[in-house]
């Protein structure tokens, strides 16, 4: 079933009509046709009905995503060293973004451990800020000895914690039309093993990224989104595909993920 047909089916089910039909929003029409703009946050009930109980730790989240506890456990020691090195970077760096922009503790371990366990060739993250999540991705890729992180942001100051890294491709997209630049760059990559959204958390910003990245996801990959609690986009996206994601409830935010 095509994307628009899926959106129409979902819209019939939810009683809300697709935005392209209702408002003609240029963003939805161009990049996520058929999707309705819904900026309300989901309720706890939505997470549970869509994905089951929320995981309270990265370890539980990773086991629900299919990895064995015995594979995850040894990574906690590695991660302590990574976190120590990151703390040193923070000391030595003039930060350009508020600390609250960075991924939280359990999400940071999830990013590191999932990258170690998946051994991806192509990782895509949107939203760099100072580079906290980028540091976890790159530390894991370094340890894997393979793979490249492609990170996208609209702010040229992004990535101060990283500087240069031979496994890192940082792209600063035009903030006037970031979606077009992101989609063009994505298509150049071909396939994606691990996708992590952490950029524009408005409904259409999230949906545009999900809709355009999903068709490029490779088998056995990982499709994840930080701030799945800020708009209903991740839940709507999974429901439209009849997929049951897993959710991690970190200190104050919810990360969602699906194996592909
Ligand atoms: C929550 S922060 C990212 C935090 C980062 N992942 C970390 O762990 O430190 C969000 C970032 O997304 C960027 N951003 C906002 N809208 C964007 C867009 N449409 N495309 C790419 N980046 C965007 C902002 O400039 C900001 O740096």
From TrEMBL:
Signal peptide: none annotated. This is Class I SAM-dependent methyltransferase. InterPro entries: SAM-dependent_MTases_sf. It is an enzyme of class 2 (transferase). One of its GO terms (biological process) is methylation. GO terms for molecular function: methyltransferase activity. Keywords: Methyltransferase, Transferase. SUPFAM superfamilies: S-adenosyl-L-methionine-dependent methyltransferases (SSF53335). Its EC number is 2.1.1.-.
């Amino acid at each position: 079933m095509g994307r628009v047909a899926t959106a129409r089916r979902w819209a019939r089910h939810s009683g809300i009509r697709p935005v392209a039909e209702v408002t003609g929003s240029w963003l939805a029409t161009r990049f996520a046709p058929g999707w309705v703009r819904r900026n309300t946050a989901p309720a706890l009930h939505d997470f549970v009905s869509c994905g089951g109980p929320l995981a309270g730790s990265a370890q539980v989240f990773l086991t629900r995503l299919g990895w064995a506890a015995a594979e995850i456990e040894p990574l906690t020691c590695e991660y302590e060293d990574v976190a120590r090195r990151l703390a040193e970077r923070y000391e030595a760096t003039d930060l350009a973004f508020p600390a609250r922009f960075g991924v939280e503790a359990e999400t940071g371990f999830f990013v590191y451990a999932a990258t170690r366990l998946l051994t991806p060739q192509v990782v895509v993250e949107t939203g760099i800020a100072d580079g906290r999540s980028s540091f976890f991705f790159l530390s894991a890729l370094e340890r894997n000895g393979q793979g490249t992180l492609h990170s996208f942001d609209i702010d040229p100051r992004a990535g101060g914690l990283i500087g240069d890294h031979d496994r890192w491709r940082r792209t600063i997209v035009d903030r006037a039309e970031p979606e077009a630049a992101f989609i063009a760059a994505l298509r150049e990559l071909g396939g994606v093993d691990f996708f992590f959204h952490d950029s524009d958390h408005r409904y259409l910003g999230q949906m545009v990224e999900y809709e355009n990245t999903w068709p490029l996801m490779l088998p056995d990959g990982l499709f994840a989104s930080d701030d799945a609690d800020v708009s209903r986009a991740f839940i709507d996206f999974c429901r439209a595909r009849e997929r049951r994601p897993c959710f991690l409830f970190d200190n104050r935010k919810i990360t969602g993920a699906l194996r592909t």
